[in-house]
């Protein structure tokens, strides 16, 4: 372990290991040997700082106002504060988002460095509060799977994600249905009442859909049984501040990726088919060798740039810069 990191603490707002905390904080913290601390709404700020005497803290996500107290008191006492912001698009659509964005503003005001997951997210922050930012992407979470080498006769598709992206799934399904292609699709997600109701009312004549609840084991099993990941996208504010993890995980699974044409994560476009999802499936089957070559090249890139080791090295460099 780097001796400089002994006085660095990675702060989390909840005992629940939410996905963004895992890939954006827990994995790199553990790789670097940085102490992880769950700081709850009733914890004492002064006692914590007096006990641990940190030189720098990293706040992974602010979920309650006590984190703001911790950040402010830390800066007032010469402790560097690095804060990570997820999904901050400044246009709240619910009371929960209004509260979260209010906390984000307060945390930003009490931070030395703002970290985001993508350039798109950083530009939105800069345009709204005129603060500079650093980009550190999420790291790969799952084990790698061998890249496919031959397509099945009937397209074997995978979509995975949370309920916040179910609207994009429906968009992709409609595009596939209009293409007239027979396909098998596995959906790995948190199964909501709205999702069950949607599939009870909406019928697809060409798509055989299997929905399974999200878990790491279920996702890895589904990935091993499929060949193409579909990532339909909708152009709106909340999508621009998302992490790239679905795209990089798909490449790490060794899959061909079909995504909607979008400015979001455009650096990956040369490795995907970008456009209508149905058209993408047709293109893949007409250009099988090129599609597989793209998947191989993309996997090499994500293993090099987004591995836990690679992302942790970016974090280490930023931390050392702010400790000096």
Determine the CATH topology of the largest domain.
Rossmann fold
CATH homologous superfamily placement of the largest domain: Glycogen Phosphorylase B
Query: Number of folding domains?
Result: 2
Tell me, rounded to a whole number, the average pLDDT.
Answer: 93
State Rg: 21 Å
Q: Please tell me the CATH architecture of the largest domain by its name.
A: 3-Layer(aba) Sandwich
Q: Give the CA-CA distance, first to last residue.
A: 18 Å
Query: Which strand order does the major sheet show?
Result: 2-1-3-4-5-6
Q: Which structural category fits the helices and strands?
A: alpha/beta
Low-confidence stretches: none
Annotation field: number of helices: 13
Order of helices and strands: EHEHEHEHEHEEHEHEHEHHEEHHH
Helix content: 40-55%
Largest sheet: 6 strands, parallel
**Could you tell me the number of beta strands?**
12
**Residue fraction in strands:** 15-25%
Overall shape = elongated
Question: Which CATH class of the largest domain is shown?
Answer: Alpha Beta
Describe the 3D structure.
The chain is α/β, with parallel strands linked by helices. It folds into two domains: 3-138 and 308-323, Glycogen Phosphorylase B (Rossmann fold, 3-Layer(aba) Sandwich), CATH 3.40.50; 156-305, Rossmann fold, CATH 3.40.50.2000. It has helices at residues 19-32, 45-52, 65-76, 95-109, 119-129, 166-179, 193-201, 216-225, 237-240, 245-252, 277-286, 288-305, 308-323, and strands spanning 8-12, 35-38, 56-59, 80-84, 113-116, 134-135, 156-160, 183-189, 207-213, 228-231, 256-259, 273-274. Strands 2-1-3-4-5-6 form a six-stranded parallel beta sheet, with helices on both faces. Helix 7 (193-201) links the parallel strand 8 and strand 9 (207-213). Helix 6 (166-179) packs across helix 11 (277-286). It is elongated, with a radius of gyration of 21 Å. The two termini are 18 Å apart. The relative contact order is 0.14.
């Amino acid at each position: 372990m780097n001796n400089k990191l002994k006085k660095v603490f990675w702060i989390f707002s909840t005992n629940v290991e939410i996905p963004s905390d895992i890939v954006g904080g827990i994995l790199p913290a553990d790789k670097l040997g940085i102490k992880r601390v769950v700081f709850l709404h009733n914890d004492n700020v002064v006692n914590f700082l007096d006990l641990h005497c940190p030189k720098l803290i990293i706040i992974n996500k602010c979920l309650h106002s006590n984190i703001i107290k911790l950040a402010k008191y830390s800066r007032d006492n010469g402790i560097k504060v690095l804060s990570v912001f997820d999904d901050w698009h400044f246009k709240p659509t619910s009371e929960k988002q209004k509260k979260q964005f209010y906390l984000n503003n307060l945390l930003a005001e009490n931070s030395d460095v703002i970290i985001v997951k993508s350039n798109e997210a950083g530009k939105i922050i800069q345009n709204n509060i005129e603060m500079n930012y650093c980009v550190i992407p999420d790291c790969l979470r799952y084990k790698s799977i061998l890249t496919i080498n031959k397509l099945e006769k009937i397209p074997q598709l995978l979509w995975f994600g949370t309920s916040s992206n179910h609207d994009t799934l429906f968009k992709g399904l409609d595009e596939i249905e209009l293409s007239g292609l027979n396909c098998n699709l596995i959906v790995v997600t948190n199964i909501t009442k709205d999702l069950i109701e949607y599939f009870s009312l909406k019928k697809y004549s060409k798509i055989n859909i299997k929905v399974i609840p999200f878990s790491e084991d279920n996702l890895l099993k589904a990935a091993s049984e499929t060949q193409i990941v579909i990532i339909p996208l909708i152009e709106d504010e909340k999508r621009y501040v998302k992490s790239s993890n679905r795209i990089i995980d798909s490449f790490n699974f060794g899959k061909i990726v079909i995504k909607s044409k979008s400015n979001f994560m455009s650096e990956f476009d040369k490795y995907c088919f970008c456009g209508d999802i149905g058209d993408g499936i047709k293109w893949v089957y007409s250009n099988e060798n090129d599609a597989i070559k793209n998947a191989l090249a993309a996997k090499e890139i994500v293993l090099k740039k987004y591995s836990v080791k690679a992302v942790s090295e970016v974090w280490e460099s930023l931390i050392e810069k702010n400790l000096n």
